[in-house]
Design brief:
single chain; 195 residues; alpha/beta; Rossmann fold; 2 domains; 7-stranded mixed β-sheet; 6 helices; 37% helix; globular
Amino acid sequence: MLKIGVLISGGGTNLQAIIDGCVSKKIEAEVVVVLSNRLDAFGLQRSEKAGISNVGLSKKDFEDKGSYFRKITELLKAHEVDLVVLAGFLEILPETFVKSFEHKIINVHPSLIPKYAGKGYYGLKVHEAVIENKELYTGATVHFVDGQVDTGQIIVQEALKVLKVDTPETLQKRVLNIEHQLMIKSIDKYIKGEI
């Protein structure tokens, strides 16, 4: 069974979707550890409730970014993780970390990459830009993580029509529902060797 390590920064709705997917057997996998860069992330409570090992790690408690990510690597390897999932993890990964888990890190992004992707495009900022630019469609993308920001090989994407009544907040909620589905689909493809 595939062992997943999930990195989060906030509420953990994508984490919950993965946990639910494992429990319902939609994916033959198990979340073995959840790591958060924010000690108050609600996703830590979700993992606690599900009985999953979890750790909050503040960068302030480390000398530098290198030692911070060395600790994350150590924890993931201690749990013998097969796949690292970035589920709203708001940190740019250093190249050394990416190389430690080459072709084993996936990320979900709330746009149709390459649009509204890269540095500075995260969370509500993506949806604000979509509405500001009067886009007709947006969506979500799951992709492999490489050494750059949001440039890795795309695994799955799904489009969504932007409604005239959409605000950045309503759009974010609608895109989030797609993210949950795509996350499960991507992990399943990874398990089946279809990527």
